[in-house]
Design brief:
InterPro entries: Asp_semialdehyde_DH, Asp_semialdehyde_DH_beta, NAD(P)-bd_dom_sf, Semialdehyde_DH_NAD-bd, Semialdhyde_DH_dimer_dom. With 335 residues, the protein is of the alpha/beta class. 33% of the residues lie in helices and 23% in strands.
């Protein structure tokens, strides 16, 4: 099992390598891939050094699976080239998510729709993944009618440049700006670029991707995405209107029985999800579960997860694990 990690030197790429090691992913050869400026440099994996190669060299090596986290333009250009030589690509960018011919996968929810013919598979946006992990079992039982979402997103979702900006501002130093405004002691209601409808791309990802993953375009979704000076993960306040009545205790029980979801919801001990505790973990944490008293059949929840783990690297790797387990990629098929 030959695995290429495209974007191996980036923030998500580093977490991918760490997660591959932690999960004892069954690879026989690692191929770290990055831009030309990084070719020839070394990365460490399980105590061994590997030399970074360029994209064309990686294609020529014909890996079984390529885990992409190198940006949309790179994915659009190179994912088809990998697929053409038989590699199965799992892409973490936004490039293929809303392509009608590509599947958008959260393994716990819809991996069963994957086939051997799927050579480019899309990984959802980080804020979408953590939310649908909590929503999927509830939608199945109570039928979601409408979602009102407010996100409080980590600067790590922007990348290394944003982390450096926060560190510079914290120390009172001048430096390169990832945002239009200071992020230290601030909240910026502007994640990604604005679309013509007045919403940002990040907000519209929550709309479109949620409907695609849950396979239900009737769900009404509106979102506001905010960047805050936090490193550990994304937080979301989600207001859910159901078609059917529910019992809050049943909601808690259902979520607590959902793989990959941890309920942290005890007001007596001030227990609720926070990024400081989600950092470095793969689960999605749910708390502040309570009925919306202003209208029928409506629930409020607070959802937190490490956006670099389940929101990106871990979900991508879980897709690859599913492909191997179910003989949906070249090496496993041949064996």
């Amino acid at each position: 099992m030959r695995i290429a990690v495209v974007g191996a030197t980036g923030m998500v790429g580093n977490v991918m390598l760490k997660s591959l090691a932690e999960r004892n992913f069954p690879l026989t050869e690692l191929i770290p891939v990055a831009s030309e400026k990084s070719v020839g440099k070394k990365v460490e994996f399980k105590g061994k050094e590997y030399t970074i190669v360029g994209l064309q060299d990686a294609v020529d090596m014909q890996p079984d699976i390529a885990l992409f986290s190198a940006g949309g333009s790179t994915s659009l250009e190179w994912a088809p080239k990998f697929a053409a030589v038989g590699t199965t690509v799992v892409d973490n960018s936004s490039a293929w998510r809303m392509d009608a011919t590509k599947k958008l996968i959260v393994p716990e929810i819809n991996a069963d729709i994957l086939t051997k013919e799927d050579k480019i598979i899309a990984n959802p946006n980080c804020s979408t993944i953590q939310m649908v992990m909590a929503l999927a079992p509830l939608h199945k039982k109570y039928q979601i009618k409408r979602l009102v979402i407010s996100t409080y997103q980590s600067i790590t979702g922007t990348g290394v440049k944003a982390v450096q900006q926060l560190e510079n501002e914290y120390k009172g130093e001048k430096g390169e700006m990832a945002y239009h405004y200071p992020i230290h002691k601030n909240a910026i209601p502007h994640c990604d670029v604005f679309e013509e409808n007045g919403y940002t791309k990040e907000e519209m990802k929550l709309v479109r991707e949620t409907q695609k993953i849950l396979n239900d375009n009737t769900i009404a979704v509106t979102a506001t995405a905010v960047r805050i000076p936090v490193v550990g993960g994304h937080s979301e306040c989600v207001n859910i209107e159901f078609e059917n009545e529910f019992d809050v205790s049943e909601i808690r029980k259902l979520l607590s029985e959902t793989p990959g979801v941890t309920v942290q919801d005890n007001l007596d001990t001030n227990t609720y999800p926070m990024p400081i505790y989600a950092h470095g973990k793969d689960d999605v944490f749910v708390g502040r579960i309570r009925r919306d008293l202003s209208q029928p059949n409506t629930l409020n929840m607070w959802i937190v997860s490490d956006n670099l783990r389940k929101g990106a690297a871990t979900n991508t790797i879980q897709i690859a694990e599913y492909l191997i387990e179910h003989n949906l990629c070249p090496s496993t098929t041949l064996s």
